[in-house]
Design brief:
It is built from 14 helices and ten strands. It is α/β, with parallel strands linked by helices and about 400 residues long. The protein folds into two domains: about 180 residues, Rossmann fold (3-Layer(aba) Sandwich); about 190 residues, Dehydroquinate synthase-like - alpha domain (Dehydroquinate synthase-like, alpha domain, Up-down Bundle).
Length: about 400
C-alpha cells in the first residue's frame, strides 16, 4: 500500500459569472480592504480598457498601480514592484493579467514578507536541489498583505503557491514557495480575456494542458489531481478548438479558464517532469514564453518518457481524453498544437542548437527535471530531448 500527501492551498474562493470590477469590489468589502493596489501588465493598463474599468469601480480605494511587469518576472522587476507597494501601503493587492503578472505579485509578497529590498536578497529564498538530490524549500513568513487575481491567460499561475522569477545574471529561473503568496481568491471573467493576443491565449492553453498531462504522468500521482486533470483535458481540448471557430465565444473562453483551474491542481502538489523543468531553463536562456516552451517540448518529453511501461499506460488515458484510441498522447498533443496554428518545433521559434548546452546545464538543477517519470541522469539526456524537439 503506497503513501501519499495532498496539500490544499490558502485560497478560499474561485468566482465566475460576475463582471470582474463588481467581483473585485465585493471581495474588497468582504475582506474589509480599503486600500487597494493593482499590479498589471503595461499593455493591459495602457492600451486596453480592462484596467480602467476596474479602476473606475474601485474609485478612491485605489492607492496605486504597478504596470512594469516583464516576462519571466526578472528579479529587478520584483524589487521595483515591492518598492511601489511599500510606498502605497495597501491592504489588498489585485493582480490582473497572465502568469507573468501573477507570479510577479507572488514574489513581491515574498519580498514583503522577508523584508527584501535588493535582488541579492532573493538568493537564499528560492527552491533548490541539495547535493543529495532532495529538495530545499526555504520557509517564507506570512506576507503583510494578500492578493486576489483576475487571470487573462490560461497559464494557471493563480492556482498555486509557487512563483517563478528569472535571474538574468545566472540565466536561471528560480521557483519561490510560500503558503500564503497564492491569490486568496480568483475571479474568472472571460470578458477581460478578449484583449489577450491570440498567440498568448492559445499557447497558454497548451501550457494548461501541460499542467494536466504532467500531473497525470507524475511519478507520485494523486487521485484528486488525476480526476481534475483528466476532466481538464476534455474541457481544454474542446474549448481551444471552439476558439478557432469563434474567438469571441465567451462560453468557450470561460470553459477554457475553468479547464485551466482544474489542470493547475497538481502544481507543486505532485511531481512534474521534464516539459516543465527543461521549459524553465529554456525560457531563462532564450526568453521564450512558457506557452511556447510547452508547445515545443511537451510532445518530445512524452515520446522520451513512454519507454517506461507505467508512463505508457498513463499516456493512454491522456490520448483517450484527447480523442485518440491508439494511446499516442504525444501525437494527440502535437495534432492539437498544429490545429491551433502554434509552433511544434524549437527551430520554428528560432532556438539554436548552440543554446542546447546552456539550457541542459540549467535544467539539471531544476526540481522537476529531477522528478521526471523516466529518470534524467545527465546533461546528455536533456540534450537528447531537445534534439527530439528540434
Amino acid at each position: 500500500m503506497s503513501a501519499g500527501l495532498y496539500n490544499y492551498i490558502s485560497q478560499d474562493r474561485v468566482i465566475w459569472g460576475t463582471p470582474a470590477g463588481e467581483a473585485v469590489l465585493e471581495e474588497a468589502k468582504r475582506r474589509n480592504a480599503k486600500r487597494i493596489f493593482i499590479i498589471a501588465s503595461k499593455t493591459l493598463n495602457r492600451k486596453t480598457s480592462v484596467i480602467a474599468k476596474i479602476k473606475d469601480v474601485l474609485g478612491p480605494s485605489l492607492v496605486g498601480t504597478f504596470d512594469e511587469c516583464q516576462e519571466h518576472a526578472p528579479r529587478a522587476t520584483i524589487i521595483a514592484a515591492a518598492t511601489a507597494v511599500r510606498a502605497a501601503n495597501p491592504d489588498l493587492i489585485v493582480s490582473i493579467g497572465g502568469g507573468t503578472v501573477i507570479d510577479t505579485t507572488k514574489i513581491v509578497l515574498v519580498a514583503l514578507a522577508e523584508n527584501v529590498t535588493t535582488t541579492a536578497g532573493l538568493d537564499d529564498l528560492h527552491l533548490s536541489i541539495n547535493p543529495d538530490g532532495s529538495r530545499r524549500t526555504p520557509t517564507i513568513s506570512a506576507p503583510p498583505v494578500r492578493q486576489i487575481a483576475i487571470p487573462t491567460t490560461l497559464s494557471g499561475a493563480e492556482y498555486s503557491c509557487l512563483g517563478g522569477s528569472s535571474d538574468p545574471k545566472r540565466k536561471i529561473k528560480d521557483g519561490f514557495y510560500g503558503s500564503e503568496i497564492c491569490p486568496a481568491a480568483v475571479i474568472i471573467d472571460p470578458a477581460v480575456t478578449l484583449a489577450t493576443p491570440e498567440w498568448l491565449w492559445l499557447s497558454t492553453g497548451i501550457r494548461a494542458i501541460d499542467h494536466a498531462i504532467e500531473s497525470i504522468c507524475s511519478r507520485g500521482a494523486v487521485p484528486l489531481v488525476d480526476a481534475c486533470a483528466l476532466h481538464a483535458l476534455s474541457l481544454l481540448n474542446e474549448a481551444l478548438r471552439a476558439y478557432r471557430e469563434n474567438s469571441e465565444d465567451l462560453k468557450a473562453r470561460q470553459q477554457a479558464l475553468q479547464g485551466s483551474w482544474l489542470a493547475s491542481q497538481g502544481i507543486l502538489r505532485v511531481d512534474y517532469g521534464a516539459s516543465h523543468g527543461i521549459g524553465h531553463s529554456l525560457g531563462a536562456v532564450t526568453q521564450l514564453s512558457h506557452g511556447y516552451t510547452s508547445c515545443v517540448l511537451l510532445p518530445a518529453v512524452l515520446r522520451w518518457n513512454r519507454i517506461d511501461p507505467e508512463n505508457k499506460a498513463r499516456q493512454k488515458l491522456i490520448a483517450e481524453r484527447m480523442g485518440r484510441n491508439d494511446g499516442d498522447a504525444a501525437q494527440a498533443v502535437e495534432d492539437l498544437i498544429s490545429f491551433l496554428g502554434l509552433p511544434t518545433r524549437l527551430r520554428e521559434v528560432n532556438v539554436s542548437k548552440n543554446d542546447f548546452a546552456q539550457v541542459a546545464e540549467g535544467a539539471m538543477g531544476n526540481i522537476w527535471v529531477n522528478t521526471n517519470p523516466r529518470p534524467i541522469t545527465s546533461v546528455d539526456d536533456v540534450i537528447g530531448i531537445l534534439e527530439r524537439a528540434y
